[in-house]
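Let us begin with a simple case.
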Amino acid sequence: MTSSSEQPDPAETPVPRDLCDIREPTGGGADETAAGALWKLAEPGRQLDANVVRLPPRQRVDTHAEPDLDVLFLVVAGDGTLDGSDGPHRLAEGRLIWLPHGSSRSLTAGEAGLSYLTVHRRRPGMRIGRRP
């Protein structure tokens, strides 16, 4: 038998959350010239980070690598090219790419622009304190 003081508070119990309709930030009247993050996962206590990013037509993200985190990359609208150390990967709506940590890549949006969702483990926050 469990005492009522050991039961979780229903107000603090995690529940599924409907965050958005992914088609809304990427289309449905959105400014086609808009660039950057259209949506971010910002719920407190989360273990993941996620963003919907829009690149206008022919815009580029320069070559970079994520040294510590694997990233899932899902094309939600438009098209483009992901250039990796193994060559180009054509991107189109629905394409799901795994970017292992340490992998190098750049992005170029196609004629219709490119909107994509990225998901990765959340980085721990910085803490100010003394070094051990």
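The second case is a distinct protein. As before, the sequence precedes its structure tokens.
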Amino acid sequence: MMHIGILLIRLAVGLTFVGHGAQKLFGWFGGYGLKGTGGWLESIGLKPGVTMALIAGLAEFVGGLLFALGLFTPFAALLLAATMVVAIVKVHAPNGFWVTQNGFEYNFILIVVVIGIALIGAGDYSIDALIK
């Protein structure tokens, strides 16, 4: 049962990151695509904006896909956690902890989840387990 729980966590978190990456990269799911996301990133001091949007979008999309599949899980967790650290530093930290004030509560939880899964392993229902 534990491995099913780990699979559910990986799928929910990983596919959510895939969606966020797709918003940045392709404008899917109500996102703004590279140009729109890049403009916003420049407005918060991350330049060049389109390049930073590409990096963030790829980290979320690829990292989320790898995490969901349980493939190279520690690397995937690193990509996702690094993206969330940047989000905390550049956007959420000045607002405090609680998400109700646009704080970093949600980003923090995501970091803990991806690092936690990386430390305990992706579980039996993962590609990592198949290639051991």
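The chain has a mean pLDDT of 98. The two ends are 21 Å apart (CA to CA).
Keep these points in mind for the review questions at the end of the chapter.
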